[in-house]
Amino acid sequence: MKNVACSWSGGKDCCMALIEAKALGYNPVVLINMMNVDGKTSRSHGLPVKLLKQQANEMNMTLVTIPTTSENYEEKFVEALIQLKTDHAIEGVVYGDIDLVAHRDWQERVCRSVGLEAILPIWERVRTKLARQIVDAGIESIIVACNAVMGEEYLGKTYSAELINKLINLGVDSCGEDGEFHSFVINCPLYQNRISVPNYLKNTNSDFCFIDWENESSSKFKDATL
Fold it and tell me: Is residue 221 part of a domain?
């Protein structure tokens, strides 16, 4: 059984890929998350380290967070993979991409450069079918960022069959593969316990709405369970 790492955003797609990688016989041992340069929040989903750590703890996996800039992203990612080969004897990296060829090309090139296998278990799935498969697999996630078409009202909403139908009616891709929205997995078959989501604020910046996790002491909290 090959030890592998998972490129972990904290969202539904990488979670589905991780579940399927395990079903294929891989042994995921470590999660990799690329952080903003301050090292406090993730680049892709804006998740604070403590929430990512909760996810890793619930799966009994190691979390590696790597602060980066846009300019040194690849360099830092490659350095991390090299170190993980030594520390965890990984032989591949699991990715949750669906059909963006440029992403796969980069992943395969980077992995090849350090002698690792790029593993994409959900590659070329039909997006609408995959969206429902994710829900049916028992992956419970909430929307943590979204575009203005969806708006702040979608932040904190559970990714469900009902929500998927609403997204389709809005003309929004049901998986958010092109960056229309991002999610945070609060429960799945890999977890020991469901994650309790802290309160938060909702903000919009440059036509993109996002959960602000930095104001947990504010009296203006919105409840993530709504």
Answer: no
Put simply, whether the predicted model's pTM sits higher than 0.90 gets the answer yes
pLDDT tens digits for range 168-177? 999 999 999 9
Do 115 and 194 fall within a single domain? no
Listed residues 100, 119, 138: the one ending a domain: 119
Q: Which residues, 6 or more positions from 18, have their beta carbon under 8 angstroms from its beta carbon?
A: 6, 8, 28, 94, 96, 190
Q: Is 78 left (phi over 0), alpha (psi -120 to 50) or beta?
A: alpha
pLDDT tens for each residue of 126-163:
999 999 999 999 999 999 999 999 999 999 999 999 99
CATH code of the domain containing 69: 3.40.50.620
Q: What is the pLDDT of residue 44?
A: 82
What is the Cα–Cα distance from 52 to 65, expressed in whole angstroms? 9
219 located within any domain: no
Q: Do 66 and 160 share a domain, yes or no?
A: no
Q: 26-82 pLDDT, tens per residue?
A: 999 999 999 999 999 999 899 999 999 999 999 999 999 999 999 999 999 999 999
